[in-house]
Amino acid sequence: MSDATRSRHVRWIDLRNPFIESLEGMTELLLVRHGEQQLGANMPVGEVVDAPLSPLGREQARVVGERLATAAIDAVYCSPLSRARVTGGEIARHHGLEPVVHEGLAELDPFHHVPAHLGVIDHYGADRFVELMREQSRPRLDSVWPDSEDVPAFRSRITSAIAEIAAANKGRRVVVACHSGVINHYLSSILGSAFHQVFPLHHTSITTVRVDGDRRAVLTVNDFAHVHAVQTSRNDLNS
Fold it and tell me: Scanning 116, 129, 133, 190, which has the fewest C-beta atoms within 10 Å of its C-beta?
């Protein structure tokens, strides 16, 4: 293989350097959680899975777009779910880009085996639903949901999707508008954590990861300074 076609191997010190002047040989991923979604009591499962942004969520998407407007963004990818597509669109429009929808970035579906027309409370009962949420938060494991899609298969899906995006964008900075579960499982795989939910990620927070092949370096996690312009408190039912 000639020097011209050989892939440059980035030094670890450069992969982790926040002041690097060139992204040659690596991909910088800005993993952005979507804005707050509009949720209601006992919503049908089908609507919960693909809930739209709330009014606050639209404002959060607007300000993260403005936050990244001056960054050198080469591409924007997003989950197929509407809350991520709209968030990705708010970022992309400042750069004359259209978000690329990647099906592999869809969020974990905890109600995968529940009929879409049933309300979550109708299906589980209020007490059982609260109990399941508590069971998930204590060990920080998504596998407590009895009707969830297969969790290991979900992790394999999202890590493969992000690896594919990184490989296609060497030397570029790329936004990936997706979900808390997607970002957390990706971070868990990088850090070798036993937890599925490693960090509490705020809506439209930015997590920065650099990738060079199978080497991945986490630079920042859960940066949501921009939302203070539009938000002063948190809705704990939709965190």
Answer: 116
Judged on CB neighbours under 10 Å (0-12, 13-18, 19+), 232 is exposed
pLDDT in tens, 204-232: 999 999 999 999 999 999 999 999 999 99
| Residue 13 to residue 11: CA distance in whole angstroms | 5
Cite the DSSP H helix spans in the chain. 12-15, 45-49, 55-67, 82-92, 120-124, 126-137, 151-167, 180-191
Token representation of residue 31: 């993993």
Question: Cβ of 88: how many Cβ atoms within 10 Å?
Answer: 28
Q: List all residues 6 or more positions away from 170 whose beta carbon is below 8 Å from its beta carbon.
A: 7, 25, 26, 27
User: Do residues 60 and 38 touch, judged by C-beta distance below 8 A?
Assistant: no
